Amino acid sequence: MAGIDNLGQSGLSYIDQLKSLQDKNKPDETTGKQDLKQEDFLSLLTKQLSQQDPFKPVSNDQMIAQMASFATVDGIGKMNTQFENLNASMTSNQALQASTLVGRDVLVPGAAGVKQANDGMAAMVKLPQSINNLMVRVENEAGQLVRTFDVGSKPPGDSRIEWDGNDDNGNPLPAGKYKVRASGMADGENQEFPVSTYANVNSVLLGKGDGNVLLNLAGFDSPVRLAEVLEVGKA
């Protein structure tokens, strides 16, 4: 700016004051926040005007432009605060709506699921085309094959498959984590198909301030994001 370029010795004093103010308002290393406010900009503008070269003063256009810039910065700061408040409000609303899922089954990506005691397990397999003989294999947490069965012909798209919780000899298997795999002949070769499993919702979490709503699922070690849920079972 013209006024600053022609300050001479007084300009050095102004620059030193500017640096001092900047050092004072450096972001807090612990919070990452910056405390530079609009009054600080106005203080700098006043200091600039008091030390400008009287033969080459700052023009009215420059002053207006600077003041407009300060107002814009202040407005952006307020807008960011409003967006943060809106995001927090939307997250709370999502969590309130998600609380209605507690006790219900949801479909989540992944072949690993949890079998409850005296119960079976349901899964969903996505087929690219019609399959004549869809084979289902169930493995325990150690990766051992505990059950194999043929669910017959299935059309393309999502097909629900049910496992009764028994092994190949009809003996009930204990509760725990199991993995469901599905395969069949497609395009002349045996292929594995993507599988998703159902799980029961225990509770709802707000996440870590990132706007995500998380679901604690029965038997799962870590929560699942609400956005990942593919289907919600009937109440």
Automatic annotation (TrEMBL):
Chain ranges of the FlgD/Vpr Ig-like domain: 118-186
Stretch list, region Disordered: 151-172
Keyword list, A-Z: Bacterial flagellum biogenesis
Start and end residues of each FlgD Tudor-like domain: 93-229
Pfam families hit by this protein: FlgD, FlgD_ig, FLgD_tudor
InterPro entries: FlgD (IPR005648), FlgD/Vpr_Ig-like (IPR025965), FLgD_Tudor (IPR025963)
Keyword ATP-binding carried by entry: no
Keyword Phosphoprotein part of the UniProt annotation: no
Function comment: Required for flagellar hook formation. May act as a scaffolding protein.
Family per similarity comment: Belongs to the FlgD family.
Protein name: Basal-body rod modification protein FlgD
Annotated organism of origin: Vibrio marisflavi CECT 7928
